[in-house]
Write a structure and sequence with these properties.
The chain is mostly helical. 72% of the residues lie in helices and 1% in strands. A hairpin with a 2-residue loop joins strand 1 and strand 2. Helix 11 crosses helix 12. The longest helix is centred in the last third of the chain and has 56 residues. The chain is elongated.
């Protein structure tokens, strides 16, 4: 994983170190790192929304293709792909953006677990030597273990500084708003009772992770470009079973992920330092903000324009129908048409 995500981790780590140097606060560094990272994905979110709008605009033609080739799935896919290519739509653009937070997940994990290396600029060799000196193992992959040990043991802190392997200003303060982001939240009652001042406040991290993850999923499902159309289709199917269509695999996968992801994130926050859960909370809030902005800037105007065009089409149909009815009403029994102000009658021979 380090080999794959090494470059992006180094870049984000450098950025995080600048933020920590500027704010002098670990929590604020994480907040603004998250804002910057999520901000970089805004253009991709916009592109994804536009791609989904294009797909929605082609929904009638897609349904026509499926009706035309009901038993030939391969032909369906070929025709659908051809339709998308001709209209500049993509079947993948809408699927890539939800994966971006996962792409940044591993680099952020390394930065959170190794703040001495990425934020404070302490070399891996010095971190390992310091761990050997103090008898703390596995510190190169988990700097927080070493940081917590140094903050707890004044003698160890003095030994570390005197060794020259680390400077006092290179040992970050992991506390933010009364929360020790270097400690891992726990549901173990005995551990909580031993240090209630540490672990009781930390329980807010898993709670907020769960709440913001669920809220973000709800916002995405309600504000994505095809959400309104799907709600209307579902309501129509309830009134008339003939309109009931089988649920596609993408929708089923989304439903499963909406249940599984909050559960996974909740469990993860009890396995990793609170800083990681804190990052996920800020990321979820940024995701919600992005979704709202995308909706009001692109999705809602598109839906309003679509509604306007539908009304124009409906009114045009009504006018055409009314005109035909008037023409039919004005026709005589023998096919002659009466003219206002003149008496109608049969032509005498």
């Amino acid at each position: 994983m380090q080999f794959i995500f090494g470059p992006i981790t180094s870049l984000l780590g450098w950025l995080a170190s600048l933020l920590y140097e500027f704010f002098g606060n670990y929590g604020l560094a994480i907040i603004f790192l998250t804002i910057i990272v999520r901000g970089l994905t805004v253009p991709l979110n916009v592109r994804s929304a536009k791609a989904m709008m294009k797909q929605q605009a082609l929904s009638n033609k897609q349904a026509e293709i499926k009706r035309k080739y009901p038993d030939d799935k391969q032909k369906q896919q070929e025709e659908l792909q051809k339709l998308f290519q001709e209209n500049g739509a993509s079947t993948f653009a809408g699927c890539l953006v939800p994966l971006l937070p996962i792409f940044f997940l591993f680099p952020t994990y390394y930065i959170v677990q190794q703040p001495l290396r990425y934020l404070m600029g302490v070399s891996n060799s010095n971190i390992k030597a310091l761990g050997d000196l103090l008898g703390v193992s596995g510190v190169t992959n988990d700097n927080i273990k070493l940081i917590n040990f140094l903050h707890k043991d004044g003698k160890a802190m003095s030994t570390a500084i005197k060794s020259g392997l680390v400077k006092m200003e290179q040992i970050p303060d992991m506390k933010f708003l009364g929360l020790d982001l270097g400690r891992t939240p726990t549901w173990n009652f005995s551990k909580i009772s031993d240090e209630p001042e540490i672990f009781l406040p930390l329980l807010i991290i898993p709670a907020l992770v769960l709440l913001t993850t669920i809220l973000q999923n709800i916002m995405i499902s309600r504000m994505k470009p095809d959400a309104k159309q799907k709600r209307e289709d579902k309501k129509r199917a309830q009134n008339n079973p003939a309109f009931n269509a089988p649920e596609d695999s993408g929708a089923r996968t989304a439903k499963i992920m909406n249940i599984v992801m909050p559960a996974i994130m909740l469990l993860t926050t009890f396995m990793l330092p609170a800083a990681f859960g804190f990052y996920w909370i800020v990321g979820n809030l940024m995701g919600i903000l992005q979704q709202v902005l995308t909706y009001y800037m692109f999705t809602k105007p598109y839906e309003e324009k679509k509604k306007e065009l539908a009304e124009q089409k409906k009114n045009a149909f009504k006018k055409k129908k009314k005109k035909a009815e008037l023409a039919a009403a004005g026709a005589g029994a023998d096919g002659s048409v009466s003219v206002p102000g003149k008496k109608s009658g049969k032509k005498k021979h």
